[in-house]
Amino acid sequence: MQAETVICSACGAPLTIPETVEYVACRYCQAQLHVQRNQSVVFTEVLQSLQKQTERIADTTDVLRIQNEIALLDREWEQQSAGLMVHGKHGRVSVPDKTSAVVGGTVITLFGLFWTAMAGLMFPPMALFGLLFISLGLWNTFKVHNDAGRYTQLRTLHDQKRQALRDQLQMLNHPESH
């Protein structure tokens, strides 16, 4: 087995080591060294700096993972919320609102009552359309009211999850402030 001489990258002392050794401790400064070899050069690298590089890479990986989780959470929210939105007759899309649900449903129901009363006086079979309006008004009230509650619940849950991820990200980006 042949020996080779390398220089300690921490203190500069010459070290004689066997050719097959990958890790060594400097006998002068006690630095833990990783022996690197390629075709023309043999050199040492302090393991502590390798550890720091590994930690930086791990932190960067964690940051990217959390950023991806936030992006995925936001995409899921967009899909969930799209199914709960209220679509107006001119293509307008809005967040479901409990007050609007009650007001809209009440207007449709009152129109149905008015229709039923007027049609009952003029042409009784047309009063059935009034019952249809009343049913539609009540159904719309309950549906949009429930959608509004579900939207609020899902939005709150999304915001809590997103904030928890942002807090994790903040801790990774600024560990000294925590």
Helix and strand arrangement:
Layout: E1 3-7, E2 14-18, E3 23-25, E4 32-37, E5 42-46, H1 47-82, E6 86-87, E7 93-94, H2 98-122, H3 127-173
Antiparallel strand pairs: 1-2, 3-4, 4-5, 6-7
Helix pairs in contact: 1-3, 2-3
Task: Please describe what this structure looks like.
The protein contains three helices and seven strands. The chain has 178 residues and is of the alpha+beta class. The chain has two domains: 3-51, Rubrerythrin, domain 2; 83-177. The chain is rod-shaped and about 115 Å long. The protein starts with a strand and ends in a 5-residue tail after the last helix. 10% of the residues are buried.
Summary keywords:
rod-shaped, alpha+beta, three-stranded antiparallel sheet, 2 domains, Rubrerythrin, domain 2
Unreliable spans = none
Percent helix, as a range, is: 55-70%
Strand arrangement across the biggest beta sheet = 3-4-5
Our estimate of the beta-strand percent is 15-25%
Biggest sheet, open or closed, and with what strands and sense? 3 strands, antiparallel
Give the rounded overall mean pLDDT: 88
Output the number of helix runs: 3
Morphology call: rod-shaped
Summarize the structure.
It is built from three helices and seven strands. The protein is α+β, with helices and mostly antiparallel strands and 178 residues long. The protein has two domains: 3-51, Rubrerythrin, domain 2; 83-177.
